[in-house]
Amino acid sequence: GRICPEASRSAGCLSTKYPQPKGQKKKKVVKYGMGGLIILFLVAIIWFPLLFMSLVRSVVGVVNQPIDVTVTLKLGGYEPLFTMSAQQPSIVPFTQQAYEELSRHFDPNPLAMQFISQYSPEDIVTAQIEGSSGALWRISPPSRAQMKRELYNGTADITLRFTWNFQRDLAKGGTVEYTNEKHTLDLAANSSERRQLASLLEGTSDQSVVIPNLFPKYIRAPNGPEANPVKQLQPNEEADYLGVRIQLRRERVGSGAAGFLEWWVIELQDCQAECNLLPMVIFSDKVSPPSLGFLAGAALRGPHPQALPGHLPGAGDARAGAGGGALRQAHLPVPLARDHDQVDPREGVGAGAPHPGRKEPPSRPPGPDAAAGTKEGRKEAAAPPPPGSGHLLVPEGPTRPARWAGAGASSLPLPTSTVGFSN
C-alpha cells in the first residue's frame, strides 16, 4: 500500500486517507439512520439508570410504612395548642374491604381511580390520631395576655399552622427517616374565629371554635422529605380539607387561679361516630430494600467520571479538578502554588550568583572608607554604577510574593546583585 507522510496534502494522499469524495451527497438512509442511532444511544444512557431504579423498586421493592405520625397545631409564634402522636397499634393497615369502599367512593372521578390503582391495600394505612392533645398547654401569663390582645385588637392576620410529621424505620428500606409538611390558614382581623378563641382564653366561654378546611385526610408519603396531600383525591385542594372544632379543656387540681390543668381538644366538624379520633389515610410508595439500596443509588447517580478515563472529555482530569493541570497555567487573580518543575531557575535563592554560561566583568573595588564602616564608605558602596558600564543594578526588594511560594520556590529576600550585559 501507499504510505503517505503525515504532513502531505497531495491529492493521492488525501484520497487514500479520506476515501469519500468531497461534495458527494450521502443517502438519507445512511444519514438519518446513523443520526437516529446516535440519539437513541444517548437517550438510552440517560434513561437506563432511571429504568433500572424503577425495576428494582417494582420487582423487589418493599413498603416502609410510618412507625410514628405526629400532628401539631400552632397559632402564630406562641406555644403549640395541640400536639399528638399515633403509633402502633393506632396506625391501622388498610383492609381489602376498606380498599373497595375507597374505590367506590371515588369511582366517578377517573383521576382519583388512576391514583388509587397504583397502590395495593398493603401500601395504605390509616393513622387514628387521638383528638385530645398529648401534652398540657403550658403558656406563661405574659404570653397568654399578649395572645388575647392580639386576637382581640390585632390588625394583622394570625397564621394557624397545622403540621404533620412521619417517621420511618430505615432498617426496612428507604433513605429518608423523617417526612413532613404543613398547611397554613390565616385568620383575618375581627373574624369570628379570633373572637371565639380569645373568649376561650379568658374563660368566658367553653364553646368549641369551628375552623373550616384545616385537616387534610389523604396524604401521600413518598421516599422523600415532603408528604403532600393527594391532589387527585382532593381536587379542590384546601376547599376539600375537613373542618375541625377546637376547644380548650380545663381541670381543677388545686385552689386559686393557678390550680388548673389545660389542654386542647380537636374533633372533626361533621363526624358521625368516634369524634375523638382524627383519621389520616397515608399512601406509602415502595422503596428499595436495604440489600439493594446501593444499586438504586448508583443507578440514580450514574457512572462516575473517574470510571470513564479517555471516554468523556475531561474525565481524566477529574482528580485534578476542572481543567486539570491547565488551571495552574491560567492567569487567574488567585494565589496559586507552583510545582518544583515550574520554577524559573533565575528566580532561585542565588539570583545574584553569576550564571555559568555568562561572563561577568570585574566588580569595582570598594572605597577606602567602606572597609572601615564609615557613612561615606557605605554610600560609595551603595552608589549605582556609572552610565555606560554595561551593568544593571537589581534592587533589594521585599520577600518573594506568597503566590510563588511552592515546593521549588523560597520566601527569602532577594539579594542585591549586578547583572552584566555583553555588547
From TrEMBL:
What does the record give under GO molecular function?
Answer: mechanosensitive monoatomic ion channel activity
Residue stretches of biased makeup (Polar residues): 413-423
User: What is one GO cellular-component annotation here?
Assistant: membrane
Q: Does the keyword Transmembrane apply?
A: yes
Residues spanning the membrane: 32-56
InterPro entries assigned: Piezo, Piezo_cap_dom, Piezo_THU9_anchor
Q: Which domain of life is it from?
A: Eukaryota
Which part of the chain is the Piezo THU9 and anchor domain? Answer: 15-54
Pfam families xrefs: Piezo_cap, Piezo_THU9_anchor
This protein's record includes keyword Transferase = no
Give positions of region: Disordered: 306-325, 340-423
Outline the extent of the Piezo non-specific cation channel cap domain. 92-298
Any idea which UniProt keywords this protein has? Answer: Membrane, Transmembrane, Transmembrane helix
- Show the PANTHER family listed in the entry: PIEZO-TYPE MECHANOSENSITIVE ION CHANNEL COMPONENT, PIEZO-TYPE MECHANOSENSITIVE ION CHANNEL HOMOLOG
Name used for this protein in its record? Uncharacterized protein
Species assigned in the record:
Lynx canadensis
| Origin organism lineage | Eukaryota, Metazoa, Chordata, Craniata, Vertebrata
